[in-house]
Every structure is written in C-alpha cells, then in structure tokens.
Amino acid sequence: MIHFTIEDRDGTQQPIEIPEGINLSLMEVLKASEYDILATCGGMALCATCHVKVLDGFDDLPSAQDAELDMLDTLPDADSDSRLACQIRVDERLNGATFRIKGVRELV
After folding, report:
1. Number of domains the chain is built from
2. 0.70 exceeded by the pTM?
3. 45: domain CATH number?
4. Which family is it part of (predicted)?
5. What is the pLDDT of residues 66-96, one digit of tens each?
6. Which candidate, 25, 24, 74, places its Cα nearest to that of 48?
7. What beta strand segments (E) does 8-102 contain?
C-alpha cells in the first residue's frame, strides 16, 4: 500500500491509502476521494486547478516537465514546492508525502 497525507484548504489533514500499481494520478485520487478540486483540463497540465504544495516528500517526486513548469509559472501563489496533482503519478515515491490543496475551487 502507498500512504500519503492530504491537507485541505482549511488545514484538515487526512491520511490516504492507495494500493500499489493502481496507475492513477494524484489528481484522480483527489477527485475520487471527493476533495474539492476542479481539475478542469482533465489532467493535461493546462489549467492549474489541481495545484498542490508538497509539504513533505518533494525531493522523492519525479521532476516536473516543461508543460507543468510553464503552467506553474502563471500562478501568483506557486513556489518552489508547488506541483500540479495531475502530473504526479501515484507510486511508491509518494509514501510518507504530504500535499496541501491550493487549486481554485471554481473558475470566475
């Protein structure tokens, strides 16, 4: 099993447990777990509505690709430990990680 923690916008932390080999993105897990994220573009790194801050485990994640970095550059609240949940595959590298949801709840 893969264990990581999600911190919602209100500071509430919830442990998540996912079977290994499930082949989902963190965004898909968040949506299936009924977290309030839009994920408008469906995982194409085009909208940044699944923006998360990596509180623990950032160095264990694979590096962000250019499309993700370009999208993060458009966000005023993104910093060096920001990622798009749609670009993070759930695998053993997420064990022990903690993510804070930052993405917008609704488009204006």
Report:
1. 1
2. yes
3. 3.10.20.30
4. Belongs to the adrenodoxin/putidaredoxin family.
5. 999 999 999 999 999 999 999 999 999 999 9
6. 74
7. 13-18, 51-56, 82-84, 98-101
